[in-house]
Design goal:
The structure is a single chain. By secondary structure, this protein is an alpha+beta fold. The chain folds into 3 domains: 71 residues; 220 residues, Thrombin, subunit H, CATH 2.40.10.120; 94 residues, Pdz3 Domain (Roll). The strands form 4 sheets. Strands 1-2-3-6-5-4 form a 6-stranded antiparallel β-barrel. Strands 8-9-10-13-12-11 form a 6-stranded antiparallel barrel. Strands 15, 16, 17, 18, 19 and 20 form a 6-stranded antiparallel sheet that branches. The chain starts with a helix and ends with a strand.
Length: 403
């Protein structure tokens, strides 16, 4: 009985023992192989991971270069080209203030109390840009035209005392000169080729920030419009202006407006703002208009605007329009043509109605006067004239006044 039980136990145990031994062998081998595999795999995984990290560290410069290369575009290239030629301008300006008097400006009381006008030195600032290697600098008349002392700061912080070569209030352009050589300078573009919607860059010294870090501030926008005619301000005539939404703030005046090639297409001059901040309405003087002004300022120091036409005009009202057969009230009518005047030699007659000047519509006397004020001696106005129910074109030379 006992023997049978023992045999039964042995029979039952043998498979378990055999299976256990076989399983142990397999498990041991598998475990050994698994560790090796895991170590190998882990090692490979760790190596691969480490290799990736090492690759990142080793290639960081090249990746940075790739990212940098990807970030470089026409705008950044244009800024890089133009920045060295942008300058900050600080001026000391003489301004006259009339002290308050309970008698106002009455000349009777002035003889007893004297002229109560006080002259003060007032600091102000603006922007400009170098246009030649020998130190000629462009800015606005309202920035430096009345300056007693002008200091120009170039990118990097070097400062120069500047001379006012010439200025023109009408066009709001001033030309400065510093005593330096081999300066970086701007390329002047073609403002007649400007397209509405193209990218533009405004650079300069808004709120005097140039003085803080010795380099210009950059803002970017598009050309919002061209050929804008603005209302005259303090005797300055702003016609054919380039409108942009690139942020132009106080202190940007006189700085360049660039196209994406880094060429100057305008001189920043006017902002419309209720609070001295940018609201997306900035205007620049077209550079093609500025080029001829600069040539005159460099040669003569001023623009000769003492000319005459020999025309006298008055506004066209409804009665005049009806009498001469105009479809609507527009233009100005010639009321007198002086003898031996440029107007007489050009063929003008009393009763001629001027509808346009140099392609710009004439609505009233002020619009024609604005066109004439913007001109200089020697220019020729192309005038569209309505005469005897026909439209003709007459050329009117602006001759220098000799007396």
């Amino acid at each position: 009985m006992k023997r049978n039980i023992l045999i039964t136990v042995l029979v039952l145990m043998v498979p378990f023992l055999g299976g256990g031994l076989i399983g142990y062998g397999i498990g041991h081998n598998a475990s050994g192989n698994g560790v090796a595999s895991a170590e190998t795999t882990g090692g490979e995984n760790s190596f691969t991971e480490a290799q990736t990290v090492r690759d990142d560290a080793a290639s960081r410069d090249s990746i940075g270069e790739t990212v940098s290369s990807g970030r470089r575009n026409a705008i950044t290239r244009a800024v890089n080209i133009a920045s060295p030629a942008v300058v900050g301008i600080n001026v000391m300006e003489l301004r006259q203030y009339r002290q308050w008097s309970p008698w106002g400006d009455d000349p009777f009381f002035r003889q007893f109390f004297g002229d109560r006008t006080v002259t003060q030195q007032v600091p102000s600032l603006g922007s400009g840009f170098i246009i030649s290697a020998d130190g000629y600098i462009l800015t606005n008349d309202h920035v430096a035209g009345n300056a007693k002392e002008i200091t120009v700061t170039v990118t990097g912080g070097q400062q120069f005392k500047a001379e006012l070569v010439g200025t023109d209030l009408i066009s709001d352009v001033a030309l400065l000169k510093v005593n330096a050589k081999n300066l970086p300078y701007m390329r002047l573009g073609n403002s007649d080729d400007v397209m509405v919607g193209e990218w533009v860059i405004a650079m300069g010294n808004p709120f005097g920030l140039f003085d803080i870090n010795d380099k210009p501030t950059v803002t970017v926008g598009v050309v919002s419009n061209t050929g804008m005619k603005l209302q005259s301000q303090d005797g300055r005539v702003y016609r054919g202006m380039i409108q942009t939404d690139a942020a132009i703030n106080a202190g940007n005046s006189g700085g360049p407006l660039l196209n994406a090639l880094g060429e100057v297409i305008g001189v920043n001059a006017v902002i419309y703002t209720p609070n001295q901040g940018n609201i997306g309405l900035g205007f620049a003087i077209p550079i093609n208009r500025v080029k001829s002004i600069v040539a005159e300022l460099r040669k003569h120091g001023k623009i000769e605007r003492s000319f005459w036409t020999g025309l006298e005009i008055q506004a066209v009202d409804r009665r005049i329009a009806r009498y001469f057969g105009l479809d609507k009230v527009e233009g100005v009518i010639v009321s007198e043509v002086q003898k031996k005047s440029p107007a007489e030699r050009s063929g003008f007659r009393v009763g001629d109605i001027i509808l346009a000047a140099n392609g710009e519509r004439v609505d009233d006397e002020s619009s024609l006067l604005a066109a004439v004020e913007d001109a200089k001696a020697g220019d020729v106005l192309s005038l569209k004239v309505f005469r005897e129910h026909k439209t003709i074109e007459l050329k009117l030379p602006l001759e220098k006044r000799t007396q």
